[in-house]
Description:
With 135 residues, the chain is α/β, with parallel strands linked by helices. It has a single domain, classed as MTH938-like (Hypothetical Protein Mth938, Chain: A, 3-Layer(aba) Sandwich), CATH 3.40.1230.10. 22% of the residues lie in helices and 26% in strands. It is globular and about 35 Å long.
Amino acid sequence: MGLDAAAPTTAQIKGYADGEVRIGERRLREAFALDAQGAITPLVAQHPHALDAADLAPVLEAKPEVVILGWAGGQLFLPAAQRHAFLERRIGLEVMALGPACRTFNLLAADGRRVVALLFPSAGGERPGGERPGD
């Protein structure tokens, strides 16, 4: 699905599909973090439940107002320990499917909000302990 243009001074997700996110001419197929200025940081974790302190540290240090987590596998709930890392720093956390996450990120970035997206374009990946989605 293609998305409309946002303000030129902000990052913009141009399109998404299960398996990839397009930012400008780049097609990203692995999990990554994206901030409102367009900085793209690859994530080691390839499933949201596998996010650890090393993945979250740069996001939390940036002190965004809100973090949007989008996963191609649809809606999911993060473990309490992951949610607590945001709560204790008073950073909003919204977890949603990949498409709504991309659209929400574009709107918030265009509005000048301090937003970071953690995007997981593939529904694959393993949860901690080697468990695959759907197991």
